[in-house]
Amino acid sequence: IGGYDNLKLDVLLAVPPKYQEGLDLDEVAAVFPYGDVRFELQDGGMIAPSGIAIEKLGDVNDDMVIVCASVTVGH
What is the pLDDT of residues 47-74, one digit of tens each? Predict the structure, then answer.
């Protein structure tokens, strides 16, 4: 009953509150090559100045968003 496809991944993301609503969890889940991914969000992370905003990439400010993540793997 094991195997990679049966893995359960519990992902805890600490994200600055003002960026939680715009977070695309489907895109985040796509970085995991296998397993069933479940997310929990909490307030955290950090916003730091990057010193540059690239309008072509959709930047509206120079925020660099730091997210802390914890991944627990089980079956």
Answer: 999 999 999 999 999 999 999 999 999 9
* Residue found by looking up tokens 């793997």 in the block: 73
Beta bridge partners of 68: 14
Q: From CA 49, how far away is CA 21, in angstroms rounded?
A: 20
- Secondary structure of residue 21 in the 3-state scheme: coil
Q: Which residues contact 12 (CB under 8 A, 6 or more apart)?
A: 39, 40, 42, 69, 70, 71, 72
> pLDDT tens-digit profile of 10-23?
999 999 999 999 89
Of 27, 28, 32, the C-alpha closest to 9 is 32
DSSP state at residue 67:
-
